Every structure is written in structure tokens, then in C-alpha cells.
Amino acid sequence: MGTRDGLDRQRVQALMAAERADYIARHPASARLAATAAQHLLFGVPMHWMNDWSTPFPLTVREASGARFRDADGHEYIDFCFGDTGAMFGHAPAPVAQAISRQATRGYTAMLPSEDAGPVAAELSRRFALPYWQFALSASDANRFVLRWLRAATGRDKVLVFNGCYHGTVDDVFVDLRGGLPTQRDSLLGQVHRLTDHTVVVEFNHLPALEAALAQGDIACVLAEPVMTNIGMIPPQPGYWVAAQELIRRHGALLVIDETHTISSGPGGYARAHGMRPDALVIGKPVAGGIPCAAYGFTEDLARRVERAKRSAPPGHSGIGTTLSANMFAMAAMRANLEHVMTDAAYRHMFALAKQLAEGLRAAIARRRLPWCVTQVGARTEFQFAASAPCNGSEAHAIMDSELEQVIHLYLLNRGLLITPFHNMLLVCPDTTPGDINRLLSVFDACLHELRL
Ligand code: PMP
């Protein structure tokens, strides 16, 4: 077998077989529950992609609190995945639990604004320096709605995204560069529209490609994560965003920053922390402490353009908004989360622990002389199978190694540590302790030892 990274692939596969056997032996209750559930759940799971974890069958969760959760077999885990960011401020944070308990007897949804709506929008404005807000139930929805508003406001029909991006189940973004050509992702199911007609894709960190695309004059907006986090982690090169924002503005396009993951950078997200000036911003997943909710904000100027677009359209369906969006329950949760959980103090704690984690991972990788790197974006840390972080989506795709990834994930899981599937991302939350980090580091080190020798 090949020895990419100097790792013996037969050794990787033998370790995987041992870890799978161990998982099966340790999880009889999860196995039983999975078998029973499969009688009525399509694919055996409530969401088909839950089968794509490294485990032989899904791990069933019984309860979660703070930085920990327990499975149906009674094993306790330290969580570094936090529902891929949905629970990044800890599971069931007390202020959110209290707010939703209070709301539990006061109604959930009425298709009318609740008393929390105004204060929530005011707090979002303060944090993100954008004055006007709307809500959705998921970041996917929020991104979809923003694209609709911005196409309507600009009268331009194209959006520009970066190769390898992910912004949720937003059809427009599933266009990749393959051999330098925009190509619709072939894994999409049931997609009948030609996405390449209205989506332009360029590599991240490549200013000439961005400029050439914008110069066509038909791009309504650029939709981007400020650091790409969904194909491993791709940081912007120094000066990239300053120049990119200037180009976007010069060519009359708008910038939408999706902070759903990069909210790990600070209470106002990456854009605020790094002096970016987006026209619109999307935030989802953890904004209401894990209760389904998302929000998007506009500058004053964009808000006026969006209002004009709405006023000049005939009455009827806009294609924007869903019945339960901005419901009373989500608003109560979001208010409590913003006021009492996503605090400056919580971020200070998370940054210190993420630094401990990133430095510890780097040290373990260096000890084993592996050509891997570690990238930290606030409370979010990723290890990647290359000596330095990738510069764009093509590079990031090339270094992915799902066999290696899966064995590391399963090894950690069997020892009570959960990290984010489908890449190598670890989050810390306000309840994570230095001892939790030490435990992760020592098991990670043991895993590398097994793989390397
Ligand atoms: N934006 C980004 C940057 C994301 O990473 C994701 C999901 N991973 C989404 C949007 C979509 O979030 P959701 O699945 O909650 O709609």
C-alpha cells in the first residue's frame, strides 16, 4: 500500500478494523435502537447523512449538557463537535433553558412579532454593526433569502461563490471548478436547473480571477465565509479581503458574509473582528443556543434598496420567508443566548482553551514528524493533512483523506471524545475545561503513536 504522509496504509486499515470491532462491542444499546428505528426511518436514521459518520452504526444520544453528552449505552463523551457549531456555546446553556422553559407555557408561534423581536434585532445590530435584521429557521434559509433580496435589489442575476464553499442546502452554491471550468456538483439529487447559468465560481485567495468575474458587471453579490471552513480550513491570505472588498465595491456588486461558522472569531464574528464591511451578514446554527433559528442583517443603504424592490413588486408571494420564522420560541432563546451566553467573557475562555488545543495538536504532530498543520479561528481549530493550510478549494480537496480521518475520529470516539465528522474540526465551548483539552491531546497522541510506528 502507499505511504502518503509516511503512514503505512495497512496499519491504518488494521487500526480501523480494531476500532470498528471495539465500537460494536461497546454499544449494544445504540445497535439495538438503530435496528429498531430502521423499521420506520428511511435509511435507518432521521437524516440520511447521519449514516456518513465513521461509526459502524449511528451513536444514539441520550442527553447533553455543557461540554458533555451521554449515549444510550451510558458512556460519557467530551464533545468537541457540538453539533457542528449548533451547540458551540455548550449543550442546553442555563439561560437558554430558562428562557424556553418560561416560553413553554406562553405560546410558540403566532405569525406576529413577539416582545423579544425588537431587543434581539437591536443586539444583533450592536454586535455586527448592521442596522436592519430579518430572521429564518436555518442558515440555509437565511442564505437563500439573502440571495433573493440582493438579486431583487440589484437587478443582477448572478452570484459569485468560492470553489469548495458550503453555505447550507442552497442550490446556487453547488458549482465547483473542475479542470478550471464551472461544473454543477454531480452528487446533487433531483436538481433540474442549470446552476452554472446564474452562479460564477472562482478560487478563494485569487484576486485576478475575482476581478475578471466581477468585471462582467452582472454579479449581484459575492457570498462568502471570511475564512473557508467547510472543506478543511482555508484562511484568507494577508490583504486578501481588503483588496477583494475594494474590487466588489468598484464593480457594483455586494458582499454577503456568512458567519455561521466564523462566529467562533468573536461576539461580532470574523468580519467585525477584522474590520470588514459587508453589505449583508448571515448567522445561523448557534445564534439561539441550538434552537432552530438564523438571522440576516443589511446595511442602511442595502435595506433601502431592498425596501424599494419590495415596494415595486406586485402584491403576492415573495419567495422569501417561512411560516415559523421568527417564532416566539426561537426569539426567546436567541435573546437569552445573545444577552447571557455569547458574552465577551465566554469568548475569552474559549480562545484560551482553543489556543491550548491548537498548540498541543501542533506539538503532537511535530513529535511524530507528520507533515500536517493546525489552523485556529478563534474557538475553532482544524488539523489538516498538509504541511501548511491550503490556499483554495482545489488544494483543500486534494489533501482530504477520508480513510485517515475516519480512523482518527473513531479512535477518539471509542475513548470518549467526539470531533466533527467529514473533516477534522474541533470546537471548545464555555464549559470546556483545560482537563478536557489535556484528555483530547493525550488520546490524539496515542492515536498518532498507533498510526506511525
Ligand atoms: N453556512 C455555513 C458556513 C455552514 O457551514 C452551514 C452548515 N454547515 C450553513 C450555512 C447551513 O446551516 P444549516 O445546515 O443549519 O442550514
From TrEMBL:
Pfam family, one: Aminotran_3
Lineage, opening ranks: Bacteria, Pseudomonadati, Pseudomonadota, Betaproteobacteria, Burkholderiales
Keyword tags: Aminotransferase, Pyridoxal phosphate, Transferase
InterPro entries on file: Aminotrans_3 (IPR005814), PyrdxlP-dep_Trfase (IPR015424), PyrdxlP-dep_Trfase_major (IPR015421), PyrdxlP-dep_Trfase_small (IPR015422)
Cofactor names: pyridoxal 5'-phosphate
Gene3D superfamilies: Aspartate Aminotransferase, domain 1 (3.90.1150.10), Type I PLP-dependent aspartate aminotransferase-like (Major domain) (3.40.640.10)
Species for this entry: Duganella callida
Name recorded for this polypeptide: Aspartate aminotransferase family protein
Annotated GO MF terms: pyridoxal phosphate binding; transaminase activity
SUPFAM superfamilies tied to this protein: PLP-dependent transferases
Family: Belongs to the class-III pyridoxal-phosphate-dependent aminotransferase family.
